[in-house]
UniProtKB/TrEMBL annotation:
This is asparagine synthase (glutamine-hydrolyzing). Pathway: Amino-acid biosynthesis; L-asparagine biosynthesis; L-asparagine from L-aspartate (L-Gln route): step 1/1. Keywords: Amino-acid biosynthesis, Asparagine biosynthesis, ATP-binding, Glutamine amidotransferase, Nucleotide-binding. GO terms for cellular component: cytosol. GO terms for biological process: asparagine biosynthetic process.
């Protein structure tokens, strides 16, 4: 919905308009409709608005509630804001707007830090509580909306993008823990770290209370279990409940807006099911959008064969875009410049280019992220289940991009600081409240890994064009339900059995039973020709050599045999290395 930024100073200095304006310039694309600033000595907020709910000036931010002595900046959408508004009105609160933004202010005043337990939505927000003289910061349960920060002895600065913090002088040294995770978990760097030492991120389902003297208190307010319910459910009950919760998740995301909403239609089961459930619930004028690329060899570059069937069946108002590989490379720099963190997913550029076109028609879209993680849709899950060894070994063999020994060959010795990926996975798999190994896999994937891979990617690339993506499959109540299911139920029918059962009779069998697809962009998977030259130039550039992250002898091996260096998930390791260096050149060297 927006871009937010701000600063709380600890050194008795006033927040400067220059710092706020500098940060706001870097988040302007997230909120192209309006902007606003507010400051009071050592505290200041900035906001770039994408107007979706209460389009009037009463919904503008930073929002100041004079009666309650509270000031708020907020990015996201609260889906249950109307119900909360009604509840809070009965308790005597008077509202001056019709926005979900004001509902957060009243909820915080009434419930304090526990207000987040009453919010159903995707959000990152900061509230200055003048009476308590502290800053309250919160991020949604699933981490759908980003919030980065820089902490020094002088100030706590926050923003919706890393670029905002880099622009005001955050330390851009490489974080060695993050570097190993970046190159091992296909660019996932779990919170609180990022690739840069001076930029951190709030963990999902987390709140912070920050005092003007620099004291910080952190609290985790949601930790889902991955266990069977106390009262056993039948298979039919699990599936029926999935249908009910998914429909509810779709409808509440459709209803929380004062502007039209569309669907990003890939042609896969997940986005097709979103269209079907909208139609089932009575929505007739459904808008859909698809993108495709050129084929390479036998690797298909589009899924139009399937998305066209959905368009025909539900008579949607459809826009279809075809992008040639010759268009990808010239636009790659734009996409990378808009990445909050280096993202290697092939579909990053695809989402960037698709969002550019969709934003010309609409402001909000539904997207299918989260279905594979919640309902076992990936090919590596059965392989992990069948694997032997410790839990982390079983997971790592089919997920981690490069063995630790290869990582040590890839980077220079100053970054040989331990196997941080394994340490993090050990910690995740040691968490309580999971019945079996695959429960731990699904919980780690849907609550931690997905946050910093597909979810971050989609939010980042859509918001770069002032387009808000909503993800029904990541509804926290649906996720809790999915994690309570027996793994064998989700993994039946080669994965996503509950979703396939729901889809029978709603979708064509050809879409339900097709082989699992991915947002295809073959040019960044099978690296050759001008793409290979481009990546080789980046990795052998003077900037890369002088940065001294990578071992140049190993770089040469990968450049000369790129298709030998593929990951367990069929990604290009060469692209992983090139993208990281390209991101640093684009966002750090040229700041």
């Amino acid at each position: 919905m927006c871009g937010i930024c701000g600063q709380l100073r600890f050194d008795n200095q006033a927040v400067t308009s220059q710092d706020l304006n500098t940060m706001m310039q870097k988040i302007a694309r997230r909120g192209p409709d309006a902007s606003g600033v507010w400051s009071d000595q050592s505290i200041g907020f900035g906001h770039q608005r994408l107007s979706i709910i209460d389009l009037s000036n009463f919904g503008a931010q930073p929002m100041v509630d004079q009666a309650l002595d509270l000031v708020l900046v907020f990015n996201g959408t609260i889906y249950n804001y109307k119900a909360l508004r009604a509840e809070l009105s009965k308790k005597g609160y008077e509202f001056f707007s019709h926005s979900d933004t004001e509902t957060i202010i009243k909820a915080y005043h009434h419930w304090g830090e526990d207000c987040v337990l009453h919010l159903d939505g995707m959000f990152a927000f900061c509230i200055w509580d003048k009476a308590q003289q502290h800053l309250f910061v919160a991020r949604d349960r699933m981490g759908i909306k980003p919030l980065y920060f820089n902490l020094t002895d002088k100030a706590f600065s926050f923003a919706s993008s890393t670029q905002s913090l880099i622009a005001i002088g955050a330390n851009t040294d490489i974080n060695s823990v993050a570097l190993q995770q970046q190159l091992s978990l296909h660019a996932v760097v779990p919170a609180p770290n990022t690739i840069l030492e001076g930029v951190k991120k709030i963990k999902p389902a987390t709140t912070l209370v920050i005092k003007p003297n620099g004291d910080i208190r952190e609290k985790t307010y949601w930790q889902p279990k991955a266990q069977r319910p106390e009262i056993a459910l039948s298979i039919e009950e699990y599936i029926e409940r999935t249908h009910e919760l998914l429909t509810k998740a779709v409808l509440k995301r459709m209803n929380a807006a004062d502007v039209p909403i569309g669907v990003l239609l890939s042609g896969g089961l997940d986005s097709s099911l979103l269209v079907a459930l909208l139609h089932e619930a009575g929505h007739e004028d459904i808008r859909t959008f698809s993108i495709g690329f050129e084929d390479i060899d036998d690797e298909a570059g589009s899924e139009f064969e399937y998305s066209d069937q959905i368009v025909d069946k539900f008579n949607t108002r459809h826009e279809k875009y075809v992008v040639s590989n010759s268009q990808v490379l010239p636009r790659l720099g734009e996409a990378v410049a808009n990445m909050n963190e280096p993202m290697v997913g092939q579909d990053s550029v695809a989402f960037y280019l698709l969002s550019e076109q969709v934003s010309k028609h609409i402001k909000v879209v539904l997207s299918g992220q989260g279905a594979d993680e919640a309902f076992a849709g990936y090919f590596w899950y059965p392989r992990m289940q069948a694997e032997s060894g410790s839990e982390v070994e079983r997971f790592s063999k089919h997920y981690v991009d490069r063995p630790y020994e290869e990582y040590l060959q890839t980077v220079n010795k100053k970054y040989h600081s331990g196997n941080h990926t394994q340490a993090w996975l050990n910690k995740e798999f040691a968490k309580a409240n999971a019945d079996e190994f695959m429960d731990k896999v699904f919980r780690t994937d849907i609550t931690r890994l997905i946050v910093d891979d597909p979810v971050k990617r989609v939010d980042n690339m859509t918001m770069a064009w002032g387009l808000e993506a909503r993800v029904p499959f990541m509804d926290y109540q649906l996720v809790e339900h999915a994690l309570s299911m027996p793994p064998r139920l989700k993994m039946a029918e080669e994965g996503k059995h509950p979703l396939k059962q729901i889809s029978r009779g709603l979708l064509p069998d050809s879409v339900i039973d097709r082989k699992k697809g991915y947002f295809p962009m073959p040019a960044l998977k099978y690296v050759r020709g001008e793409f290979l030259d481009f990546m080789a130039d980046i990795l052998t550039s003077s900037q890369c050599i002088n940065r001294e992250i990578f071992d140049q002898k190993f770089i040469q091996k990968v450049i000369h045999q790129p298709e030998k260096y593929m990951t367990a998930l069929n990604g290009s390791r060469l692209w992983h290395l090139a993208l990281l260096e390209y991101w640093l050149q684009t966002n750090v060297d040229q700041k």
